[in-house]
Specification:
Organism: Alexandrium catenella (Red tide dinoflagellate)
Keywords: Metal-binding, Repeat, Zinc, Zinc-finger
CATH class of the largest domain: Mainly Beta
Number of helices: 5
InterPro entries: DnaJ_C, DnaJ_domain, DNJA1/2-like, HSP40/DnaJ_pept-bd, HSP_DnaJ_Cys-rich_dom, HSP_DnaJ_Cys-rich_dom_sf, J_dom_sf
Structural class: alpha+beta
Strand content: 25-35%
Pfam families: DnaJ (PF00226), DnaJ_C (PF01556)
Distance between the termini: 53 Å
Number of strands: 9
GO molecular function: Hsp70 protein binding; unfolded protein binding; zinc ion binding
Length: 202
């Protein structure tokens, strides 16, 4: 971070990426979301946080990334169509803070200022407080201040007849983030192994 800092002649975008990586690695919940969903989940959380700081208008306008999941169904379902039930991992507003990310009280690390002073050699730089992420408030412990939790929901979907590998979109069954419209879930449907039959190539 010191080498990439713009005040030391570094690249601003590289400094942002290094700071983002540090924030992700130092936060257990955010690291777990990254391991499960990759950059898409972190992008959604950052957009949610930025939108809440800006009054939520930006968050309302941006679409929620769809959840992609691969499922296997019986060969008979792919051949004739039918309903299939499966577990769908997705994000939902935190049950403890209702998605507002914080609880009553000010952050003890920055004393409610939202910023801390970090020394880079002779430089004294004001940076966003890591503990409250710039809010100045005590973050919700249940969701780590992200405003969302991961759940595995039991979902039933109508699978149309088609080839193995077909995509089925479930409207409104994806991530649900505070202040945002519900996202979609996109299924990649493949056939379970069958002891006697297999789907012929189209």
């Amino acid at each position: 971070a010191r080498e990439c800092h713009p005040d030391k002649g570094g690249d601003a975008e590289q400094f942002r990426l290094v700071t983002r990586a540090h924030t992700m690695l130092s936060d257990e919940r955010k690291r777990a979301l990254y391991d499960e969903h990759g950059d898409a989940a972190l992008d959604e959380i950052e957009a949610l946080t930025d939108g809440s700081r800006a009054g939520g208008s930006q968050a309302m306008e941006e679409p929620v990334q769809p959840v992609g999941v691969r499922i296997q169904v019986p060969l008979e379902v792919l051949h004739a169509g039918g309903k299939h039930t499966f577990l769908l991992p997705r994000l939902r507003p935190c049950s403890a803070c209702s998605g507002v990310q914080s609880v009553s009280g000010v952050c003890s690390a920055c004393r409610g200022r939202g910023q801390q002073t970090v020394d880079f050699g002779p430089l004294h730089v004001q940076v966003t407080c890591e503990q409250c992420r710039g809010t100045g408030r005590r973050l919700c412990r249940t969701c780590g201040g992200h405003g969302v939790q991961q759940e595995e929901a039991e979902v039933s979907a109508e699978i149309p007849p088609g080839p193995s590998g077909q995509r089925v979109t479930l409207r409104g069954e994806g991530h649900r983030l505070p202040g945002r419209q519900e996202g979609d879930a996109v299924l990649v449907v493949t056939a379970e192994p069958h002891e006697r039959f297999a789907l012929a190539d189209a």
